[in-house]
Design brief:
By secondary structure, the protein is mainly alpha-helical. The chain is built from 8 helices and 4 strands. 57% of the residues lie in helices and 6% in strands. Helix 1 links the parallel strand 1 and strand 2. The radius of gyration is 17 Å and the shape is globular.
């Protein structure tokens, strides 16, 4: 089984951390959707990271579906069993994913030539990002997000989204504004599983 994509992608990193926590064996190949387009296209014509190539050659796109396949293989998930805790985890995981989506959106907007940027759209996604970070920070401050001992999908999604923000758009994510989230993410980054899959800073 092969996971393809750069670890500067929050989606690739979330899938990798989750697969490891589910104790699955898989290889990882750092292929960039931008710098190595042809190589990526040969693996997945959609050129989307992450892509998972299963042992029989099936290609799965979308991190949530890759994680679903990991759960199928492992016969378990990292989500809590109890219904209300499970629902809260789904809710917080969604917020973490939206935070990552909006951070990626801000980064992609910045890649546009100045004349093709649309300020109202940039403001919209910055507001959405900041709302997501507010919600994650409140959850971290209230003890709903942590660094274990049992990491939940919401813990992973929040920490990875924050790490991505700090790496790519630190000016949009000052630590002083979201200290509880920053502390939760920093505790996660100190764990072996996060160190095993560090942000690719090249
Ligand atoms: N919803 C997707 C998002 C994945 C995504 O947007 N990945 C980026 C890299 S961070 C990508 O493939 N960008 C190239 C493109 O969309 O064409 C997931 O969860 O896997």
């Amino acid at each position: 089984m092969l996971l393809v994509g750069m670890l500067d992608s929050p989606y690739v990193r979330r899938a990798a951390v989750t697969g490891t926590l589910l104790e699955l064996e898989f290889e990882h190949r750092s292929v960039s959707v931008f710098r190595h387009m042809d190589e990526f296209r040969a693996i997945n014509p959609l050129i989307k990271a992450p892509s998972l190539v299963t042992d029989d050659g099936t290609v799965i796109s979308e991190s949530l579906l890759i994680i679903q396949h990991f759960e199928d293989l492992a016969g378990r998930s990292l989500r809590p069993v109890e219904a209300s805790a499970r629902m809260r985890d789904l809710s917080l995981t969604g917020i973490g994913i939206v935070a990552a989506d909006k951070a990626v959106g801000i980064e992609y907007e910045r890649k546009r030539p100045e004349a093709q940027r649309y300020a109202p759209w940039q403001e919209r996604i910055a507001t959405q990002l900041h709302t997501a970070l507010d919600l994650l920070d409140a959850a971290a401050g209230g003890g709903e997000l942590s660094a274990g001992p049992e990491l939940l999908p919401s813990d992973i999604a929040a920490a990875i989204a924050w790490g991505f923000c700090r790496f790519v758009i630190p000016d949009f994510a000052p630590v002083e504004r979201w200290p509880a989230l920053a502390a939760q993410a920093s505790a996660c980054e100190a764990l072996d599983v996060f160190k095993r899959w560090p942000i690719d800073r090249e």
